[in-house]
């Protein structure tokens, strides 16, 4: 059985750091913008303006 090294290749470390940064950026953007965005199920404000009055 061959001896296995515990050292990770540099490319794998860089890949995991990049994935971690992307996840952290997505979380930061979510919490920064989610407080000002309307819910997806909310009717758009222009929907009632486009319909003619009865």
Could you list some keywords that capture this structure?
single chain; 54 residues; mainly alpha; 2 helices
Structural write-up:
- It contains two helices and no strands.
- It is an all-alpha fold and 54 residues long.
- The protein has helices spanning 10-33, 45-50.
At a glance:
This protein has two helices and no strands. With 54 residues, the chain is mainly α.
Unreliable segments (pLDDT under 50, ≥5 consecutive)? none
Number of strands: 0
Helix/strand order, N-terminal first: HH
Shape: rod-shaped
Sheet with the most strands, sense and barrel status: none
Our Rg estimate from Cα atoms comes to 24 Å
Cα(first) to Cα(last) distance is: 82 Å
Helix/strand class: mainly alpha
Work out the strand percent: under 5%
Q: Topology, pairings included?
A:
Layout: H1 10-33, H2 45-50
């Amino acid at each position: 059985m061959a001896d296995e090294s515990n050292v990770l290749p540099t490319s794998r470390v860089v890949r995991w750091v990049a994935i971690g940064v992307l996840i952290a950026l997505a979380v930061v953007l979510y919490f920064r913008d989610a407080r000002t965005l309307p819910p997806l199920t909310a009717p758009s404000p222009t929907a009632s303006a486009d319909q003619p009055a009865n």
